[in-house]
Amino acid sequence: MMMARKQDARIPTYNISVVGLSGTEKEKGQCGVGKSCLCNRFVRPSADEFHLDHTSVLSTSDFGGRVVNNDHFLYWGEVVRSLEECSECRAHVVEQTEFIDDQTFQPHRSTALQPYIKRAAATKLASAEKLMYFCTDQLGLEQDFEQKQMPDGKLLVDGFLLCIDVSRGMNRNFDEQLKFVSNLYNQLAKTKKPIVVVLTKCDEGVERYIRDAHAFALSKKNLQVVETSARSNVNVDLAFGTLVQLVDKSRGKTKIIPYFEALKQQSQQIAAAKDKYEWLVSRVVKSHNETWAAVSRKMQPAPEYQDYVYLEGTPKAKKLFLQHVQRLKQEHIERRRRTYLALLPQALEALVPNLDEIDHLSCSKVQRLLEGKGDFSKWFVVLEETPWDATSHIDSADAERIPFDVMETPAAEQLYEAHLERLRNERKRAEMRRAFQENLEASPFVTPGKPWEEARSFIMNEDFYMWLEEPVYMDIYGKHQKRIIERAKEEFQELLLEYSELFYELELDAKPSKEKMGVIQEVLGEEQRFKALQKLQAERDALILKHIHFVYHPTKETCPSCPLCVDSRVEQLLGSRAARPAERNQKNFLSDPNVDRINLVILGKDGLARELANEIRALCTNDDKYVIEGKMYELSLRPIEGNVRLPVNAFQTPTFQPHGCLCLYNSKESLSYVVESIEKSAAGRRENHPAHLPLTLMLVNKRGDAGGETLHSLVQQGQQIAGKLQC
Fold first, then answer.
1. 599 vs 608, 635, 657, 665, CA distance in Å?
2. Alpha carbons 609 and 602: distance in angstroms, whole number
3. Is residue 326 within a helix (H) or strand (E), and if so which, with residue range?
4. CA distances from 93 to 40, 150, 170, 176, 431 (A)
5. Does residue 687 register a pLDDT over 80?
6. What single-letter DSSP state applies at residue 662?
7. SS3 173
8. What pLDDT, on the 0 to 100 scale, is given for residue 587?
9. What are the φ and ψ backbone dihedral angles of 283, each rounded to 5 degrees?
10. What CATH number did the domain enclosing 610 receive?
11. Cβ–Cβ contacts within 10 Å for residue 235, how many?
């Protein structure tokens, strides 16, 4: 402790008196000249400890309290500081003022009855147990503030700061103030103490007032002038440091910095501190739910926080924190909003996919429709409080469902309109696809094998180009070509069957000569079914060769109608039988479990039934077994050619339960016989109805048939009957 006192005693101490225009409102206007703010900013420079309002109108009790202590001066305390890069010094600061009675609005009576000008020039100040002043709120509540007394109850003033307010003070004439200051200076000069002129409130300074104040200082033995702003904390230390240098000539001469240059430096310092503080806030605060109390405690040790609070104060630090939190909140809300709006098209597609249902509805009207949908709660949630972004729902875990009031926003209305437009466009494109297909069907210019490049100019119109993309109409055209080519090939095969005599004279296994092919093409050349494959000559020639091969090698593999030929249909009929006959369970049935029994009726007149039965038996083994794809069947055939009402021609007998029926025809008369027989059998039998049997209607094309009926006509008649019999 002793060493500390000795070391502390080496620090030079200066007592500074701050003076300037004081008195009643009539003398100084509605506000002071800034003496208190200047002292406050120097002694307690931290923004949180700086107070703008310091009243000089006091009650008698406040005036008599230990802070004012019945004096017309305030003791602001002491401060130890290095001024202008010099060694440390201690400064005691007092402010000479004039306190006004809040009842009489006249100066309070005190022990010193001198006028302000004489009293302010006093160099010996004494006031026993006078307390250090903080702010107006301290008066009457001294016990709530630090209680530090003026040392030894007395001070010897070393120099004066003479304040001149250069702002446009209310109800104050600047020239009158300058006259008062001039008289005050004359009184101060008698003390032989150093004087520095301090221009206060330069942040609101009037250029003429500043100029006149400088002229005044120049006229008074070239006084030093410092332009300050206590509110902006500009040049305050410079003013006190300049006076200290005048008191102690051993200290380096102080460089006077103009106000605006100093303001620029101060602004840059604040801006840099603000940037660092904002960086700290962004690093520490990641959630919009953070509170100032918790975050400020966390940031308190950080120099970025301390520097900014020192310069700008806790309220501004809190304001920046709240702005950051609000920004995080808005970003969070915006992310949620984007999520909801991204889900909305899917919800509309799921709930109202039908254009006819909503084409006439506005966005506001469609909301009632949506609420009535069964899956409404899967996509939407109705909140008790709205809008959703102003409620606690922003932090709800239910982010998969859209708050229903989102539908009332312009963005949702745009998405609904886009949904409508998409449905309308889809309908229009579907209409265009149908119209394009119809154009293809109706156009005589679209023939089998015609390339799209040749057909385009006959088919396309402006609407097709507008509504259909190239891959779409190319796909439709390709499928259409596939259909008409298959149809043309089938019709060409029918044509070849009709002209069977052209192929009788060819040698077995021999490829037809060029001359023979020429004859065939010449005979068929006038037929429209031949011309239809004009663009596909290679395929047409291949069909001719395939037909020739079939004529001399008539198997199911070489049949042009495969899999619709007789052999294939018989195999299909056998393979698709769903139920086994009842006899399967009888004791006298076949003992071999790997053999199935097939009972087949063959119906046809004029020997057709017997002929096919013989051909099928020729394909069987010696014991009437028929093999299909490795599966063996025991085959029992019942050919019928007469009246089915006679027992001898009945479909079913006590020992024969049919599993299927092949119906053969080669003329109009034989087809009529098949139809009549099916109908008679159905009418005469209630159980095991033949209509329940699998039926296959088969056209038998005999070579050299002189009946005069064309094969094409018989095919058409057979198709009509097959449709009637559902076979």
1. 18, 6, 7, 21
2. 5
3. helix 314-351
4. 10, 10, 28, 27, 93
5. no
6. E
7. coil
8. 38
9. -75, -35
10. 3.40.50
11. 27
Beta carbons of 18 and 35 less than 8 angstroms apart: yes
- How many Å apart are CA 366 and CA 372, to the nearest integer? 10
The span from the CA of 200 to the CA of 221, in Å, is: 21
Q: What is the pLDDT of residues 105-123, one digit of tens each?
A: 888 887 667 888 999 999 9
539: three-class secondary structure by DSSP? helix
Cis peptide before 563 (omega within 30 of 0): yes
Residue 193 has pLDDT above 90, yes or no: yes
Distance CA 594, CA 104 (A): 132
d(CA 309, CA 483): 84
Single-letter amino acid code for the residue at 403? P
CATH code of 139's domain: 3.40.50.300
* CB of 254 closer than 8 Å to CB of 238: yes
Looking at the structure of the chain, the number of domains it has is 3
Return the number of other C-beta atoms located less than 10 Å from residue 3's C-beta: 7
Domain containing residue 352 = 331-425
| DSSP output for 187-234 | HHHTTT--EEEEEE-GGGB-HHHHHHHHHHHHHTTS-EEEE-BTTTTB
Residue of 198, 256, 259, 237 whose CA lies nearest to 41: 237
**How does residue 614 score in pLDDT terms, banded at 50, 70 and 90?**
confident
What is the mean pLDDT of the segment spanning 93-116?
Answer: 85
At residue 507, the pLDDT reads: 64
Q: What is the pLDDT of residues 578-610, one digit of tens each?
A: 444 444 443 333 344 555 788 899 999 888 888
Regarding predicted confidence, which is higher, 532 or 689? 532
| Encoded tokens for 201 | 């409130």
Report if residue 229 sits inside a domain: yes
Same domain, yes or no, for 104 and 229? yes
Boundary of a domain, candidates 425, 460, 487: 425
Q: How far apart are the C-alpha atoms of 536 and 534, rounded to whole Å? A: 5
Backbone angles phi, psi at 706, to 5 degrees: -100, 20
Residues 233 and 349 placed together within one structural domain of the fold? no
Residues above pLDDT 70, as percent of the chain: 90
The per-residue b/e assignment along 483-497, b for 16 or more CB within 10 angstroms, e otherwise, is ebbeebbebbbbbbb
Burial class (CB in 10 A: 0-12, 13-18, 19+), 398: exposed
Residue pair 178/190 in contact by the 8 Å Cβ criterion: no
Instruction: Report how far apart, in Å, the C-alpha atoms of 199 and of each of 95, 232, 280, 337 are.
Output: 16, 13, 37, 55
DSSP secondary structure letters along 30-61: SS--SHHHHHHHHHS-SGGG--S----EE-HH
On whether both 230 and 353 belong to a single domain, the answer is no
Residue 75 to residue 198: CA distance in whole angstroms: 19
What's residue 555's pLDDT?
72
Reading the block at residue 629, the tokens are: 């794809």
The DSSP letter of residue 172 is: -
- From residue 156, give the alpha-carbon distance in Å to each of 14, 35, 236, 237: 9, 19, 22, 21
Domain boundary among 257, 279, 311: 257
- Radius of gyration in angstroms for the set of CA atoms belonging to the chain, rounded to a whole number: 57
Checking DSSP bridges between strand 631-640 and strand 625-628, what pairing results, if any? antiparallel
- Tell me the mean pLDDT in the region 486-499: 88
630 in helix, strand or coil? coil
